[in-house]
Design goal:
The chain is α/β, with parallel strands linked by helices and 432 residues long. It contains 20 helices and nine strands. The longest helix is centred in the C-terminal third of the chain and has 18 residues, at 297-314.
């Protein structure tokens, strides 16, 4: 197992790097219990591994093994279960329910953003809700959602992820208005069952002024019960003059950090990392061109995906002419306003069904297909987690969403008409 895993790790790490941190590890794999036990040569190595490598290792281990596995760490180097343990065993799940790409390791930082990432890691350790609420501010494309979901993923390794609520203000409002049909008491009691609250796009509370007092009730419950809250918003929350005074004051009880826009150094690092992962060969000049032209991670991700798709589908290496042509036909269009509701609207209009049918429980073939396509597009275009998508679609279980997304993904591989339909619907969503 160790040699197979090493071959997998060579896709993201060099041989010299693996000799430094992977080769000294002692690994034992138990397929029946779905557990990997890691032993270290000594305690100092274990401490270094925890602070520098562990996030990356767990993310790659998840990609190699799949979901449902756990990893346990021993710092005495012993992996023989019959031998007496010299130290306590630390066991962690290595699932990433809120997106495998959202980890601390994949969040590129420099001195500008060192404090926010260090603070987020401290929150993820759950040392008594010291920073509650933890508020992440920053402009669009600065990585707020990435950091928020990284904390959620890290917490899910030691806590049941079903007790972690992650969603936007739009999704939280839909929970009240759609799933619980405007009954605030039922919605509130449902929300209070969660142990953690992760709320994205907080600036959109401006669109729901009537909901602010309900947020005060939610805040009071989570704060009084020492249940961690993590909030992300576009601007400094102290600048929101539209907030209710009691809500504004409560937000100031915790720790507020601000992410800076990704500078050229970070953007270059982001491109280089994705090129290594996708095995996409770009020259230094091409990397610099992308980093200078596209300042938003979302745009960078889109153009890199387009370049990779060209390489895979056309079956040849990119020439400079190909590179220039693809960039010339790339429109840098903001997608900040694209939401699950807008995607549902486009799909409902195409299939001539009501949005309430997409969020409802009707199983007619026509409606079920529209619902599955809407879920697939939301996952593809917004990269929303399966639990969050389930809530957007009327409180569906995450497994239902996962099934729908995988089904459409498989069908489009063999169905040209469906593939073209998905392409058309994506275009309409971007123009809406």
């Amino acid at each position: 197992m160790k040699q197979s895993l090493r071959k997998h790790l060579l896709q993201s790490s060099s041989d010299d790097e693996l000799k430094q941190w992977f080769d000294p590890l002692h690994l034992e794999y138990d397929e029946e219990s779905k557990r990997v036990t890691v032993g270290f040569p000594h305690a100092f190595f274990a401490k270094w591994f925890e602070s520098e490598i562990q996030d990356k290792f767990e993310a790659q281990l998840n990609m190699f093994l799949g979901s449902g596995y756990s990893v346990s760490y021993l710092d005495n180097g012993a992996v023989d279960r019959s031998a007496p343990a010299q130290t306590a065993e630390v066991v962690k799940r290595i699932d990433f329910p809120f997106g495998q790409e959202f980890t601390f390791d994949s969040f590129l930082i420099n001195k500008k953003n060192y404090f926010p990432i260090a603070s987020a890691k401290e929150v993820a350790k759950q040392s008594g809700s010291l920073f509650n609420p933890f508020i992440i501010c920053g402009p669009g494309g600065s990585g707020k959602t990435h950091l928020l979901k990284s904390v959620a993923n890290e917490l899910s390794k030691k806590n049941d992820y079903s007790g972690i609520f992650t969603g936007s203000v739009d999704e939280l409002n839909s929970l009240y208005t759609i799933r619980f049909k405007g009954d605030p008491f039922r919605a509130r009691n449902h929300l209070f069952e969660y142990d953690f609250l992760f709320l994205d796009d907080f600036q959109k509370i401006k669109e729901y002024p009537h909901f602010q007092q309900e947020l005060v009730n939610i805040f009071n419950h989570f704060y009084d019960n020492k249940k961690q809250m993590v909030i992300a918003c576009r601007d400094k929350v102290t600048s929101y003059d539209f907030l209710d005074e009691s809500l504004q004051s409560r937000l100031g009880w915790g720790l507020i950090v601000t992410l800076k826009e990704p500078d050229l150094e970070i953007r270059v690092g982001y491109i280089q990392r994705h090129c290594r992962m996708k095995r996409l060969q770009l020259s230094k000049e091409q990397v610099l061109t992308l980093a200078q032209r596209f300042t938003d991670f979302r745009y960078l991700q889109g153009i890199l995906l387009k370049l990779f798709a060209f390489k895979e589908l056309v079956k040849k290496e990119l020439t400079q002419k190909d590179f220039d042509h693809i960039l010339a036909n790339t429109e840098e269009k903001a997608t900040d306003d694209l939401t699950p509701k807008k995607i549902m609207t486009v799909v409902s209009e195409h299939f001539k069904v009501h949005i309430r049918d997409l969020t409802g429980t009707k199983r007619h073939q026509h409606i079920a297909q529209a619902r599955q396509i809407a879920m697939f597009l939301c996952r593809q275009m917004l990269n929303t987690s399966y639990p969050s998508l389930g809530r957007s679609f009327g409180g569906k279980d995450h497994s239902t969403v996962l099934y729908s997304v995988k089904k459409i993904q498989q069908l489009q591989d063999d169905d040209y008409e469906l593939k073209q339909l998905l392409k058309t619907l994506k275009g309409k969503c971007r123009m809406s």
